[in-house]
Amino acid sequence: MTERITILGATGSIGVSTADVLSQHPDRYRVSALVAGRDAAGLARMARRLGAEYAAVSDPSKLRELRVELSGSGIACGAGADAVREASERDADLVVSAISGIAGLVPTRDALKPGRRIALANKESLVSAGQAFMTEAARTGVQILAMDSEHNALTQALAAGHPDDVECMILTASGGPFRTWTRERMAAARPADTAKHPTYSMGAKINVDSASLMNKGLELIEAHHLFGIGADRLGVVVHPQSIIHGLVQWRDGGMTAGMAVPDMRIPIAHCLAVDRRLPITVPRLDLAAIGSFTFEAPDEERFPCLGLARAALAAGGAMPTVLNGANEIAVEAFLGGRIGFLDIPWIVEETLSRSAGQGAHAPGSIEDALALDFEARAVAADLLRRREPYPARAGR
Ligand code: NAD
Ligand code: MG
Fold it and tell me: Could you tell me if 187 and 241 lie in one domain?
């Protein structure tokens, strides 16, 4: 039986890895729709290679280029928000949600159609609107599959026992490219330094989040929504080899680990296959070659973003939405060379404290989350405009 797959964020790191897994099983999968932001040529190439039925770019100015690149292929295409919605809603058995940032929230919500599955890589949607999104998924009967490697490993580990017997869950972190850096060195870090991730090759935004450990903070909030587990039962341990991705601690003291070489095609294949395992060509784990696994506690003094995310999760209400919005603004400014790396936690912390009166209730709908996100971005952008000279904050 062939399954129809749609990829939101098709030209990115996760999208390309997903395309690789699909092309290893051409008889099993057909591609319904592909969505990208601005890379019309890259999207057209992938659409032709995978035989997609529909391709959409969110940037309306790229329509002409996309049409030219697809001419003669018979692949329908469009550009702008309506075209992205058409792609999200189009008939598919499984939708891979892999747009970066909160830009993925509305397309992923539009993809919630009865009877289908959503493989979620786009963690920012869950951080910003987790409660509203999971409620909407349950109402429409959509199964949400965890594609993020840690959460996918936890899904696999959970299969070893009964959910009521879980004592706690632990996410591992590689520690990112700045794991051994001093704060002084981090203060001078450039965007290119965040691209040197020790174990994964990823998009620009998640590279910065991995370097600041905000990625792990966002993942704690993601785990809370995916597994319905409280902040007090979620832990993080740094494991530089990135072989163990998640651990379930059972109430008898036993532990089950989800392990694999750090290659996103493995969690992607797990999501695509659902109840069975998909044979795929990826490197196999050679334990003797690795030799040893090491673990260390995360250093929240050098990496304050992790503590900020943990605090936002514990505070609940609007705080995770504000955290995510402020972080997106800060990361964008860092990538644009407008602020230093240590300004990221500063902007997030200041935005959180200035938004403390935003309400004790988590956003009840996707629209509420988007409105809160908009306000948080405005606060963060205002901080950026009026910030003190960078050295004054570097010693904080
Ligand atoms: P990326 O930057 O490489 O790719 C992002 C994709 O989204 C691109 O196809 C881009 O064209 C598209 N896009 C961007 N803005 C858009 C918009 N407004 N409308 C439509 N499409 C848009 O990012 P990535 O590394 O593939 O990460 C994607 C998501 O998956 C993120 O949420 C990230 O946190 C998560 N994730 C990534 C990895 C990884 O290994 N890369 C692992 C786990 C989770
Ligand atoms: Mg992850």
Answer: yes
Q: Are residues 80 and 124 in the same domain?
A: yes
pTM: 0.97
| Phi, psi for 246 (deg, rounded to 5) | -160, 150
**pLDDT value at residue 390:** 52
Total domains in the chain come to: 3
Task: Name the more confident of 388 and 286.
Answer: 286
40 and 7 Cβ atoms separated by less than 8 Å: no
Closest-approaching ligand to the CA atom of 96: 1
Same domain for 91 and 131?
yes
Ligand 1 centre and the CA of 396: distance in Å? 32
List residues bridging with 6 in a β-sheet: 95
CA-wise closest residue to 218 among 368, 44, 337, 100: 100
Q: Ligand 2: distance of its center to the CA of 150 in Å?
A: 5
Are residues 237 and 303 both part of a single domain?
A: yes
- Could you report the per-residue pLDDT of 247-301, keeping only the tens digit for each? 999 999 999 999 999 999 999 999 999 789 999 999 999 999 999 999 999 999 9
Where helices occur in 51-122 by DSSP H, the ranges are: 63-70, 81-89, 105-110
Nearest CA to ligand 1 atom 4: 12
Ligand 2 center–CA 123 separation, angstroms: 9
> Would 222 be classed as within a structural domain?
yes
Q: Which ligand is nearest to the CA of 236?
A: 2
C-beta separation of 100 from 205 below 8 A: yes
Does residue 291 fall inside a structural domain?
A: no
Q: Which domain holds residue 48?
A: 3-147
Residues within 6 Å of ligand 1 by CB: 9-15, 35-37, 39, 58, 84, 98-100, 103, 121-124, 148-149, 200, 202-204, 206, 264
Question: 215-240 pLDDT, tens per residue?
Answer: 999 999 999 999 999 999 999 999 99
* 140 and 167 housed in the same domain: no
